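The protein record passed on for reference:
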Amino acid sequence: MNIKNLIMTSIMALSLMACGNKNETPQNEKPTVKIGVLYPLSGDAAFFGDSAKKAAKLFFDEFDDRKAKYNYELIWEDSLSNPAKAAMAARKLMDYDKVDIIFDMYSGVALAVSPVTNEKKVLHLTFAQDRAISTGFYNWRVVTSTQKTGEKMLQAVKKRNLHNLIGVVENTAGTMSLFNGFADEVEKDKDVVMKTMSINPGERDFNILLQKIKIAKPDAIVVSLHSPEIDIFMRQAKLNQVDIPIVGVQSFTFLKDKSLAEGSWYVDVAFADKSFLKRYKESSGDDITNFAENFYTLLQVTTTNYESIKSDGKPTKEEFIANMESVNGVISPVGKLMVDRENQNVDSEASIRGIKDGVVVEIDE
């Protein structure tokens, strides 16, 4: 073979190799699961979005993507903790980014997003308590149920011999849902009575309300308030020298300044296990998780479900829903997960927490 023919043969061989590689690349690529995240990234509640991003980093640092059948891509959008704006952002994620699943938090936001995800037939997993979110086929909650938090709260109140209570609840979907879970348990009990005082979102002056509470002299004040109302309420309680114990249904987790509730206790969703807390601090440098454990759990539920489905190509949304029992019994940062298909919720146990030296700690009882 002369030099000219040798060169031509080499060029043809290289061309065939190039064509072969080009054809093989798509077959070797993993399908990508796109996850749209609607979390507060600005405003008063931005610290929850910041913690979620830190939880995502930790999760994927620990996730063995080499053995995974799928790639997982997070696309972040700012919910602004605003239901109307969150619903618009959800449409952007579905119509433009073509996400397979949406994560969000806060009942108000999730209630606005759930009709849209159901209409578009897009999976929706939320860290929010209101049962009304779980309507339609595609909407699931991943959160400790209000029944479990209510039962835990009543046990804690009775153990401390608190029989005469005043509840202060904010008129938002999430706070009302949590508070009503406790109120429902109180109604069944003969030893505890509670009078309820309601406030509206955005209220900033609680001085008159606090004076009324001081005159009533309850055994304890049970707050179910959001941010920033909970910070304002606790500051004004100190200024008004309210010496009545203030306890909470989740509320103190929303405090920006945890020292405002120093020494107080409250009932909340499942507490993060010690291993997660250690790993999170090593990864992020933070002691306070701000529900990072719950965002980690959302990712764990999603990847566990997808990876266990036997399917050619990327599973359908319907296959994902049908396979939800795959996460039943999974040990997550918030403990063992329990699939409640009737209520479309991945449940977990409630916890009793306290504020010590400005940090949230678990109280064992």
Notes: Residues 52 and 295 are 6 Å apart (CA to CA). The chain has two domains: 32-144+272-347, 146-268. Residues 32-144+272-347 form a domain with the Rossmann fold fold (CATH 3.40.50.2300). The two ends are 88 Å apart (CA to CA).
